[in-house]
TrEMBL record:
<keyword id="KW-0663">Pyridoxal phosphate</keyword>
<dbReference type="InterPro" id="IPR015421">
    <property type="entry name" value="PyrdxlP-dep_Trfase_major"/>
</dbReference>
<dbReference type="InterPro" id="IPR002129">
    <property type="entry name" value="PyrdxlP-dep_de-COase"/>
</dbReference>
<keyword id="KW-0210">Decarboxylase</keyword>
<dbReference type="GO" id="GO:0030170">
    <property type="term" value="F:pyridoxal phosphate binding"/>
</dbReference>
<dbReference type="Pfam" id="PF00282">
    <property type="entry name" value="Pyridoxal_deC"/>
</dbReference>
<dbReference type="InterPro" id="IPR015422">
    <property type="entry name" value="PyrdxlP-dep_Trfase_small"/>
</dbReference>
<dbReference type="GO" id="GO:0004058">
    <property type="term" value="F:aromatic-L-amino-acid decarboxylase activity"/>
</dbReference>
<dbReference type="GO" id="GO:0005737">
    <property type="term" value="C:cytoplasm"/>
</dbReference>
<dbReference type="GO" id="GO:0019752">
    <property type="term" value="P:carboxylic acid metabolic process"/>
</dbReference>
<protein>
    <submittedName>
        <fullName>Amino acid decarboxylase</fullName>
    </submittedName>
</protein>
<comment type="similarity">
    <text>Belongs to the group II decarboxylase family.</text>
</comment>
<dbReference type="InterPro" id="IPR015424">
    <property type="entry name" value="PyrdxlP-dep_Trfase"/>
</dbReference>
<keyword id="KW-0456">Lyase</keyword>
<feature type="modified residue" description="N6-(pyridoxal phosphate)lysine">
    <location>
        <position position="287"/>
    </location>
</feature>
Length: 457
């Protein structure tokens, strides 16, 4: 009996080809089974269908590659939330570009591990080139910017705090009340004081309150501003915050996991004015970059800041190997085994260029404006505020918070639409996060029709 075939090597592509046909057929069939943005029936029904399709999770004898792929991929697809469906608009959950997903297949088949050069000779060079180019977008005037590939905003923010701690000792994080939850967890993990919360009465950090906090606090300080909040997609006043940090000797980190890709849009890049005054910046390309997760970055203004991440393991970066010219990769991450997530990004950047990706950003920004306009024209709906990025908050006029929550859960249970929720201005709002550049005005109108229909139940 022949051993199970491998994905790599000269025979790998030929062994993969029929399996890919099976996967693609299962993706198509599963999407047809689902028939919408989300499987109907809620958690219990979905769990039942998955258990039924999977059968015994670890059988004594396997069913074979074709049957297993067909059954499991079809079941997971049928039970998936499909971010490519225009009515799936709850979270920063992007529909990945087909070319990026195809490139990610190559990464899986080749399976480079980015912890030593002899496991990833070409991928390590590719990562060096792409991260340098993206870091230069965040810090165009810096002489030696750099960036690390991460699993996303949570890891990037944690790294930013770690680097600040290594520069200044027990640094005190200062964050807006609108900041991502990862800062509190990162401070806990790193043994730092709990972040000082600066009021954000209108959803963005209040500069006057920040100035008061910086005046009263002592010791090394790291201010973390946000360029794209997860609730309403708002951007803190970065130029004012940067000025205050400079005046008080505080360092600045900007969490631009959501808004960072606006750097690629000539039209919307000005929204990030002041970003380049930060010392570190978080950017996620699995949000407004349309990459399969994960595709995070931590950009640094000065590559020397990364030197503290250096680490020695003789089997990966022995001194004599490094002296002989083999690149040392262990300082490029806190992780050891690490996928070449840069491959899909490199392919995307080459294929679309800055203008192509910028056009996708512009399209989603325009969709958010269109949805806000539709809400304002609807007598039964209330708009929270004109959108800053691609997030629109709205709710039925006169509805209680309980009713708003119930409308969202009903649409989820029925599999008809996937909307998020956010608290703002003391009330609960429905949240549409528009990341699908293929969505149409008709799709937007359908979202509102479903919500307004929910008020009649």
């Amino acid at each position: 009996m022949r051993a199970a075939p491998l994905a790599g090597g000269t025979p790998g592509p030929d062994d993969l080809r029929p399996l890919l046909d099976t996967v693609l057929d299962a993706l198509r069939s599963g999407a047809a089974d689902r028939g919408g943005p989300l499987p109907a029936g809620g958690p219990g029904a979905v769990a039942h269908r998955v258990r039924e399709a999977l059968g015994e999770a670890l059988p004594e004898r396997g069913t074979g590659a074709t049957e297993a792929l067909a059954a499991v991929v079809r079941a997971v697809t049928a039970g998936a939330a499909d971010p490519a469906h225009p009515l799936c608009a709850a979270h920063l959950h992007t529909p990945p570009l087909a070319l990026a997903a195809a490139a990610d297949l190559a990464a899986s088949a080749l399976n480079p591990s980015m912890d030593s050069w002899d496991q990833a000779p070409a991928a390590s060079v590719l990562e060096e080139l792409v991260t340098a180019a993206l870091a230069a977008e965040a810090f165009p005037a810096a002489p030696r910017p750099d960036a690390l590939v991460t699993t996303g905003g949570t890891e990037s923010n944690q790294l930013a705090l770690l680097l600040a701690r290594e520069r200044g000792g027990t640094v005190q994080p200062v964050v807006g009340a609108n900041a991502h939850h990862s800062f509190r967890r990162a401070a806990w993990l790193l043994g730092l004081p709990e972040p000082v919360l600066v009021p954000a009465p209108n959803g963005t950090m209040d500069p006057a309150a920040l100035e008061q906090a910086l005046t009263e606090l002592r010791g090394p300080l790291l201010v973390a501003a946000t360029a794209g909040t997860t609730d309403a997609g708002l951007i803190d006043p970065l130029p004012e915050i940067a000025e205050l940090c400079a005046a008080h000797g505080a360092e600045l980190h900007v969490d631009a996991a959501y808004g960072g890709p606006l750097l690629l849009s000539e039209r919307h890049r000005p929204l990030l004015a002041g970003l380049d005054r930060a010392r570190t910046v978080t950017v996620d390309l699995h949000k407004l970059g349309w990459q399969p997760a994960a595709a995070g970055l931590l950009a640094v203004r000065d590559a020397d800041d990364l030197a503290v991440l250096g680490h020695r393991a003789d089997y990966l970066n022995a001194d004599d190997d490094t002296e002989a010219g083999l690149p040392d990769l262990l300082g490029r991450s806190l992780r050891t085994t690490r996928r070449p997530d840069v491959l899909k990004t490199a392919v995307t950047l080459r294929a679309l260029g800055r203008s192509g990706l910028g056009a996708l950003v512009d399209a989603c920004m325009a969709l958010a404006g269109d949805l806000a306009e539709l809400v304002e024209k609807s007598p039964g709906l209330e708009l929270y505020a004109p959108p800053t990025l691609t997030t629109v908050l709205f709710r039925p006029y006169g509805a209680s918070d309980e009713a708003v929550a119930a409308i969202r859960r009903t649409l989820l249970a029925e599999g008809r639409a996937v909307l998020g929720r956010a608290a703002a201005d003391g009330r609960l709002w429905l949240k549409a996060t528009l990341l699908n550049p293929h969505a149409t005005p008709g799709d937007l109108a359908q979202i509102l029709t479903l919500v307004e229909g929910g008020t009649d139940r």
